[in-house]
Amino acid sequence: MKILKDISLKKFNTFGLDYRADCLISITTEEEAISLLSDHASLDNPLLILGGGSNLLFTGDFKGTILRPELDGIKVEEQNQENVIISAGAGVNWDKLVEWTVNKGFCGLENLSLIPGLTGAAPIQNIGAYGVEVKDTIEKVKTICISDGTERIFSNTDCEFGYRKSIFKNENKGKYLVTRVYYRLSTNQLLKLDYGSLNDEIKKLGEATLKNVRQAVINIRRSKLPDPGITGNA
């Protein structure tokens, strides 16, 4: 765990705005999060959970405590001839997770390539693109309650997913820190190619494979959206 006082937020938001936070705490393990949040009263309010910083706009210095999940690690939990369950820490870069699944031959997340942010934000927003929503792959979400540090696991049904929303954006907004997300993916290539210009872009690359679907999505996104590393945007 790192506790940083009076820190610049420039590298923590995709607009690259150089505002400051009173305190930023980087959490690298579930044990750290439990220890920290079980003594919630000692933290300066308000609390803000900050992932990749690609869905917000700071308009001034943040007077309070920012919690930044940096829990790492991707692993296979279960596998059979048709499906695989994998899990990823909330701090894993989302596109790195998608790349990992494609390289392993696991199907289900490839259409969500190049979406900015961290894995922990995926169930909160129920991210989606090119005919796929992440809710269709999520098995469960592991969390820690902000108010008392207790652990809670949300099943897919518990998450109450809807279009670009979940229970974490509604009645449980700001109440839970996501630590790990579990996904059920296919070990067969059940590709979804019928959204917009995706199929046409894949044809330029050759046959329809996991890697070509991923590359086609990347090509389309890059042609439409500016790189936040060059032009600040969210």
Short description:
By secondary structure, the chain is an alpha+beta fold. It has helices at 30-37, 94-104, 122-125, 198-205, 210-224, and strands at 2-8, 20-27, 47-49, 62-69, 74-79, 83-89, 128-129, 132-133, 138-145, 151-155, 176-186.
Q: What number of structural domains do the residues give?
A: 2
Average pLDDT for all residues: 95
Per CATH, the architecture of the largest domain is 2-Layer Sandwich
Give, in order, the helices and strands: EEHEEEEHHEEEEEHH
- Helical percentage: 10-25%
What gyration radius follows from the Cα positions, in whole Å? 18 Å
Describe the sheet with the most strands.
Answer: 5 strands, antiparallel
Distance separating the two termini:
27 Å
In the CATH hierarchy, what is the class of the largest domain? Alpha Beta
Structural class: alpha+beta
Coarse shape: globular
Strand arrangement within the widest β-sheet reads: 5-6-11-9-10
| Percent of residues in β-strands | 25-35%
Regarding quaternary structure, what we see is single chain
Low-confidence parts: none
How does this model look, in words?
The protein is of the alpha+beta class and 234 residues long. It has 2 domains: 2-69, Uridine Diphospho-n-acetylenolpyruvylglucosamine Reductase, domain 2; 74-186, 2-Layer Sandwich (Uridine Diphospho-n-acetylenolpyruvylglucosamine Reductase, domain 3), CATH 3.30.465. The chain has 5 helices and 11 strands. The chain has helices at 30-37, 94-104, 122-125, 198-205, 210-224, and strands spanning 2-8, 20-27, 47-49, 62-69, 74-79, 83-89, 128-129, 132-133, 138-145, 151-155, 176-186. The strands form 3 sheets. The protein has a 5-stranded antiparallel β-sheet with strand order 5-6-11-9-10. Strands 1-2-4-3 form a 4-stranded mixed β-sheet. A two-stranded antiparallel sheet has the order 7-8. A hairpin with a 5-residue loop joins β9 (138-145) and β10. The longest helix is centred in the last third of the chain and has 15 residues, at 210-224. The chain is globular and about 55 Å long.
